[in-house]
């Protein structure tokens, strides 16, 4: 199904595409990223490409969970009635490798993590003794089997320690090291070009002339690419000039896995991206039934996937979240490529246009969501204050306060 949609130009039949149809188009453009082996130190934040099997069990041997005395419970189990005094035959610190069996009528002083001597079936914590080093008095004893860590009770050798598709955080890297792994198979991070277009754009810091604005989309999109797992490269924005646009793209395209453009895809004049790609590659343009972000384009140029986003910052951000981010994460092998969605109650009423899926900026907290600003796609300050997107279905035009809606959690939503 996805492949059929990807081959069908957006809007060729004269109708507006659904969000799901365009998602399928973009997903079909990005294949699974190639696999590479990286050392543990370089694997943080990457996505595991294949299952990783434990080389050793955890724990690797029976060991003590407490500082105390390794003993035979049959000899110390009655200590609560009358203290038991026994000679301390051995000291076993953590790391000792020449552990000898526990002889009858003796105990071994043992430290946390040290190997349990054969014959012992309980560790009496030092707090229940007088702490003796030659002879110890045990005033009480826990049940048999207490304070022991059995070999393999955490994970057995030969079993899957880390499953493919798992993002590698601190705990996962700690486990990999604990089972003896030095390198991990991960998906290579896609190299993503980000290019903004518009003759009105000026680099931040320069003096603005009437009608000019600071270029912000490339900073926004590059950060979004990085957060999704790609390696962004910001190209210098270009004016509404087809030749300059094509020269900029062609100079970099061979090194990229994906090109993302913003601007130049609407229905008016001076739409440089549409004009440049009209006879080049397979990029097709059309409308998607959503707001913001209706004008979209996708295809390939010189075999490189291209996704064209609208130029308004909020439209570009929402379009990236809905179409590009999940496709990038799927290519990286994430088992769950989509943002977390949760139900929430509306703090106030809202309206939405019929026939278009609305993605409103919101502030989510404790199961309640408040709308942040209006629906305008130029309201960047409101976007920066939002921590979720409120999703209003195409067939819903009005919702009262207290109604339940789906929200897509974005940066900071769970902080």
> What's the tally of helices?
9
Extract low-pLDDT stretches: 1-9
Structural class: alpha/beta
Oligomer: single chain
Work out the count of structural domains: 4
- What is the CA-CA span between the terminal residues? 38 Å
CATH fold annotation of the largest domain: Molybdenum Cofactor Biosythetic Enzyme, Chain A
Number of strands: 27
Beta fraction: 25-35%
CATH architecture of the largest domain, please?
Answer: 3-Layer(aba) Sandwich
- Approximate helicity band: 10-25%
Query: pLDDT average, as an integer?
Result: 90
Radius of gyration over C-alpha positions, nearest whole angstrom: 31 Å
Largest sheet geometry = 6 strands, mixed
Strand order of the largest sheet: 15-12-16-20-19-17
CATH superfamily of the largest domain: MoaB/Mog-like domain
* Mass-distribution shape: elongated
What is the name of the CATH class of the largest domain?
A: Alpha Beta
Report what the structure shows.
The protein is an alpha/beta fold and 415 residues long. The chain has four domains: 162 residues, Molybdenum Cofactor Biosythetic Enzyme, Chain A; 58 residues, Molybdopterin biosynthesis moea protein, domain 2, CATH 3.90.105; 87 residues, Molybdopterin biosynthesis moea protein, domain 3 (Molybdopterin biosynthesis moeA protein, domain 3), CATH 2.170.190.11; 69 residues, Beta-clip. It is built from nine helices and 27 strands. A six-stranded mixed beta sheet has the order 15-12-16-20-19-17. The protein has a five-stranded mixed beta sheet with strand order 7-4-6-5-8. Strands 21-24-23-25-27 form a five-stranded mixed beta barrel. A hairpin with a 2-residue loop joins strand 19 and strand 20. It is elongated, with a radius of gyration of 31 Å.
